[in-house]
Design goal:
By secondary structure, the protein is of the alpha+beta class. It contains 21 helices and 19 strands. Strands 4, 5, 6, 7, 8 and 9 form a six-stranded antiparallel sheet that branches. Strands 3-2-10 form a three-stranded antiparallel sheet. The protein has a two-stranded antiparallel sheet with strand order 1-19. β11 and β12 form a beta hairpin. α4 packs across α15, α16 packs antiparallel against α18 and α18 packs antiparallel against α19. The protein is elongated, with a radius of gyration of 49 Å. The termini are far apart.
């Protein structure tokens, strides 16, 4: 494999994928065997023994799946809560609460609990699974987009990550996801491709998911992180923005509001890009995603470790397979020995049985109180009852050992499996269940790590998907919901466009995920605790009857809780801090006082007044700027008119000068013409005189001659 990575080089990318597959091959093969062991009908027998026992009894006594269900049940019964905590900058608890509400909204619309649970079971069996965070339209008719948590079918044979040491895969620089399609599907989706070329996988033992299908063409998506330089600017209002076309378009509007630039800096972000490929070449151009810093493929590892520069993981089944196989073998041998051994029988001579054949033949079915037989001196005494299958004590011992050891290999104990052989007290059972839960805790921890990484990816991408000005559903822990607007927008006066500026100075947030008892379990503990305390102090039940009724998960108890609270309110037993807004208003009305206004409403009105004042100030500044521009425009027009007058006067003077010059030139030309005429007349006179002289000369010459 080339040492110099080049995300544009298709050959390098395929070699990197091959290396990732080779590095994880041993883990994947064990995981595939574990999957087959649990899910195939004959998976709990090794290939060798299936051949040896061909035609002979081969039984499966599945003790593994109930234990897997116990582990996955422990994972599922816990409540997992993603928390967003302010960590720096202008981060606030209120913003963190809003992030948490949006994350719950995303999980709800994605049916994420089902995805988490299915992946958790696969993780417990195979040791590895996962899901993907994607961007998708809210619905078919909407232009609003949501983030979604999406299942990845056949993760074990379709997803690989680049080199990483973190259990959540957060440090992986790239990754791959493959999908299988038929040749017809391939040609329909990629009509410009001449010859389908399937991407290779590392499957060698058997086709794990598709039952041996060899007609599927694997096409991959390559995920990678591309460094991108991003210029940031901090403004005089304390906000930090990305310098892009939208920011530049609004720079004059910000200036009119008195918001000026203080300084700029450049930072590098890791933009996640994707590109489709098959085994022969790239399919299409690289595409940028909304994700940054982390590949949106979230792995779910069980028993994760990084040893000798390699990732290691395994599920619960890997440690149970040998125990289960030996148990199946031992039980099958015991049944086989019993099935092929003769049954125990009464042994009689012919003389002893003579005359009693009819009752002897029905000895195992008739209800006769006695069985008669004939004495035989050659066989004195009662006929013996002998025979039957002798059970191999070694087989009994080994099957008992396997049956007892199998749960312990998974970290489970009798009480954890619902068995109470010693009839222990409830406290003892609780302690044993807690001990058994230790075996499941590592799988619960693995899920919290994966969900925490999911929360980090979501919180990082939310500002780029949920635009400012959009109304978003916010879900609370108890399932209640609110609709809230995200921020505000600004209009570019030159183009009329409404532009969103994402504020990056709102702060940094940490994301955590914790697992605890489910809400129903906590309700049960509340009832149990209040009941026990109430035995010692009955006033606890009287004063907290509404709390107790709310904690009882039974039909009609919500009505009982409301009535009990009403009773406590009427009697004045509720302290002021516990009163709802409606109860406070009713109490003040009864006392003849005007209802106390909600502080949140007062604060909201104050914020509204401040916003209106800011808006009026901004409008005033805008009007001043417009008037100033109009005055300057009129001054410019006046100056332009003055320049035009001056130009006209100058042109007039030039015209008069041209006329004077023309007159002077005309006079000069007239005098020149007169001079020329006089000269011409003089010349004509001279010519005439010369002619006269010549004529006289000729006459004189003739006279002389």
């Amino acid at each position: 494999m080339p040492t110099q990575q080049n995300y544009e080089d298709h050959t390098w990318m395929l070699e990197a994928l091959k290396k990732a597959q080779d590095d994880d091959h041993d883990n994947r093969e064990m995981a595939r065997e574990a999957h087959r062991f649990v899910n195939d009908r004959d998976g709990q027998w090794e290939d060798k023994w299936r051949e040896v026992y061909n035609g002979r009894p081969r039984y499966t006594f599945d003790l593994t799946n109930p234990m897997i269900e116990q582990i996955t049940g422990s994972i599922a019964k816990s409540d997992y809560s993603i928390k967003v905590l302010p960590a720096g900058g202008k981060a606030t608890k209120e913003a963190g609460r809003k992030y948490e509400g949006i994350v719950r909204h995303i999980e709800a619309i994605s049916n994420a609990n089902e995805i988490y649970s299915k992946s958790g079971r696969s993780m417990a069996v195979e040791g590895c699974n996962g899901w993907e965070v994607v961007q998708a339209y809210q619905d078919g008719d909407s232009f609003d987009q949501d983030l979604m948590i999406s299942t990845v079918p056949n993760w074990l044979n379709r997803v690989w990550l680049g080199p990483h040491t973190e259990q959540d895969g957060s440090d992986a620089p790239y990754g791959w996801k493959l999908i299988g399609m038929t040749e017809d599907e391939y040609r329909a989706k990629y009509p410009k491709r001449d010859v389908p070329s399937s991407v290779s996988t590392d499957e060698t033992s058997f086709n794990f998911r598709y039952g041996g299908r060899d007609d599927l063409i694997l096409v991959g998506t390559f995920y990678y992180k591309k460094p991108v330089e991003r210029e940031l600017v901090i403004m005089s209002n304390g906000q930090t923005y990305v310098v892009d076309d939208d920011f530049e378009a609004l720079s004059d509007e910000l200036a009119q509001l008195g918001v000026t630039e203080l300084r700029r800096r450049t930072r590098t972000v890791l933009k996640v890009c994707t590109r489709i490929f098959d085994n022969s070449d790239w399919i299409g151009k690289p595409q940028e995603t909304v994700f940054e810093n982390w590949i949106p493929l979230v792995p779910l590892y069980a028993n994760f470790d990084y040893v000798d520069d390699c990732v290691e993981y395994y599920g619960a089944v890997e440690k149970m397979m040998d125990w289960q196989r030996i148990y199946n073998y031992g039980m099958t041998r015991k049944i086989e020995d019993l099935a092929f051994s003769p049954r125990p029988k009464y042994w009689l001579t012919t003389k002893q049985a003579m005359g009693h054949e009819s009752t002897l033949e029905t000895l195992n079915t008739n209800n006769d109180p006695v069985q008669l037989w004939n004495p035989d001196p050659e066989a004195p005494g009662v006929p013996p009852f002998i025979g039957g299958a002798p059970v191999n004590p070694g087989l009994s011992e080994i099957t008992n050992d396997m049956q007892n050891g199998l749960p312990m290999s998974a970290g489970l104990f009798a009480a954890s499996l619902g068995d109470n052989p010693g009839l222990q007290s409830g406290v003892a059972i609780d302690l044993l269940q807690e001990r058994g839960d230790v075996g499941s805790n590592k799988y619960i921890d693995a899920r919290t790590i994966a969900q925490r990484q999911t929360g980090r990816i979501l919180v990082n991408a939310i500002p780029r998907v949920y635009d400012i000005g959009r109304e978003v559903r916010i879900l609370s822990d108890d399932g209640s919901m609110d609709m809230e607007l995200i921020g505000a927008t600004m209009q570019d006066q030159q183009t009329g466009r409404v532009i969103t500026l994402h504020d990056l100075a709102e702060g940094q947030y940490d994301v955590t995920c914790s697992a605890g008892p489910s809400f129903a379990t906590r309700q049960g503990k509340t009832v149990d605790a209040m009941t026990k305390i109430g035995l010692a102090d009955p006033s606890v039940i009287q004063m907290g009857g509404d709390v107790l009724a709310n904690a009882v998960n039974a039909p009609g108890m919500d009505i009982v809780a409301k009535r009990k609270r009403r009773q406590l309110f009427t009697s004045g037993a509720l302290v002021p801090d516990e009163l709802t807004d409606e109860e406070q208003a009713e109490l003040q009305s009864q006392q003849g006082q005007p209802p106390q206004e909600d502080p949140m409403m007062v604060a909201a009105r104050a914020e509204e007044a401040k916003a209106q004042a800011d808006l009026m100030a901004a409008q005033t500044k805008q009007m001043e700027a417009q008037l100033d521009a109009q005055v300057k425009m009129k001054e410019a027009e006046q100056k332009d008119k003055e320049l035009q007058i001056r130009a006209y006067e100058a042109e007039t003077k030039r015209f008069e000068a041209d006329i004077d010059r023309a007159k002077a030139l005309g006079e000069i030309k007239g005098k020149a013409a007169q001079s020329a005429k006089a000269l011409a007349e003089a010349e004509a006179q001279d010519i005439e005189n010369d002619a006269v002289k010549a004529g006289i000369t000729k006459i004189v010459d003739r006279l002389r001659g």
